[in-house]
ABC transporter domain protein (Methylorubrum populi), 704 residues
Amino acid sequence: MAALKSRLGIQAVLTALVALLLLAMPGIPSPPLYVSLAGFAMAGILVASNTLSAYLKIFVSVYGVGYLVLAGAKTLAAMGALPATVAALLPPDFAATGSVVFAAIVLAVSHWKPIRDITLIADPYFASHDAPSREIGMFRRFGRTEGQIGRNLVALSIFVNFADVALTLRFNFFYRDMYNALQEFDAPSFWYQLGYIFVPLAVLNVVIGMFDIYVDSGLQLRWRTWLTHNLYERWLGEGTHYRIPFVDEHADNPDQRIQSDVNNFIAQTTTLSTRLLSQAAQLVSFIVILWTLSRDFVLPFTDTVIPGFLVWLVIAYAVVGTWLTHLIGKPLIGLDYRQEQVEADFRFALARNRIYSEQIALLRGERAESSRLSTLFHAIVDNYVGIIFRRIKLIAFTFSYRQASTIFPLVIAAPSFFAKKITLGALQQTSNAFSNVQNSLNFFINSYTILAAYKANTIRLGSFKRAMTKAEALAGAGYGLANGNDTAGAVTARDLTLALPDGREIVRGASFELPKNRATLLSGPSGSGKSTLFRAIAGIWPFGKGRVDVPAGQSALVLPQRPYIPLGSLRGAVAYPHTVDTFSDEAIRDALRAAQLPQLADQLDAIDSWDRRLSGGEQQRLAIARAILAKPDWLFLDESTAALDEETEATIYRMLRETLPGTTLVSIGHRSTLNKHHDQRLEMKSAGEGRFEPRLSAMPAPAE
């Protein structure tokens, strides 16, 4: 009953009723019996498809509507209920049955693993209940939710593609009738075909072509916008981007997966679903026409009858032609791949010269760099020459093949025409149908390159989503390390053990308390786990056991040794991680002056690569300015002043104590000069076997 209550269930009931009416209405000229029987099959397919993925349901639903429209229209035309002009534009009877065949194909392939992998990526968009995206005006009112808009656009795209196939079919019959009129010197029929058949078909063809581009572009743009937002928000959410390298799922270059792979996946999905199925519809339709035309085909100059000879001939012609094209063009795959590689190497070398221009100038390395660039560019030229000659060979064959395909069916059918066994219109119809079947077959056979790229995109996006799922699970304390805000005024650690991603422990059995308003200096040898302890306190380190608690409702800011500086204006770099409108210009200028960067106070709107323009010490002071603006309750400084001289470092610490009296400082540092700026020390002591244990002690009194 649940299936019948769904949209597909309602369609199934309507389809069965239409099929029953086609059988039960005596005296009414209705479509052939197979059309009625196909309706019952369609009803069964619709019910069985109720558990399909959200994306595949769209196709089955559209095919169900297609059957109702085509079967109903042909019945109305047979009853004389449609104008003659409209009835003349309808496709043949078997088009309705074709909808049932394609629905059955979708139902069958839904169990194929590659299809399931695709729908796992596609379904979230089409099942989405998010409000329509305001970024895009195209089709924004085409549904109440973004998922509904996507489903409606896919359905519309399928209808448009099948309308195009129906037009192509109708053009085939138009050419037959027009050439028959010419052969019979039937002027009224000729002008009727031109004025009342060709002109409406041509206008429809142009309109459908324009509308098809608009619908496809709108679908791809809206789908890409939603999926891109979904992936990068999930990637950046809750530190997932940080934890992905720690999981056992290959997910390198997330930038490529979010930007390039998403775009390619969506473009290829729409191509290999709507376009592929329209090609299948065209193939089936024109094979039926070719079979009808050559049902009793007699080989030229013989008495041998080969049923459907033209069908077998076009299949053999397309397969042989594609095989030869593959043999000639196969080296292009390797050449094109190498071209991308050598171009990337050359571009990367140029970028490194720009990044390390100061070092190259200091070492006088321009001549060596020029020689290396010359070698890399020479590889580009050599490979491209190979591409040119291979393309010439391929074009020579493909052009010859296309020219021959125009004449080939005429040569085969011409003897029958001259023997007056077929009309001029039938000869032209044969040539046109042969060409359409060949093009459809070539599309299927040549799609292996598209499918290879599509499979690669699907694998990359699938592994990226799995990696994010595992990283999110990692954040759920799956390794036994718990984070909370279960304290009133101190950062506490209880029975804390920290490990590296490979499982090796570096901190064991730590229990300590960092009280509010007491500056703590964390010290110890390199590799003792100081920065890892900071990450655990910040809640982003997943490997370990025990518990870390921070004061409830209090803010914290961690400043690493190498601060992140985003692209854009200086204002945005200083305000980060807040937005540029969070702080006033005067507040930002005051923060820069306090951080010993007065020379930057008047450059807030300057856009530059600040991570390259500023020295290491200036970048650390810019991060200090962020802390002054944010005024956190807790400020964790992970060697955040290591690039400063001791005097400037002392000035910065005094300024922080004075400017942020309500902020508790916790620092990692090696200089003994830091002692006087802190009240206590948390020192990482060796516990043997590469493990360390933090021990809290009072800061020694300064020497007299």
Observations:
- Residues 1-5 have pLDDT under 50 and may be disordered.
- The longest strand covers residues 505-515.
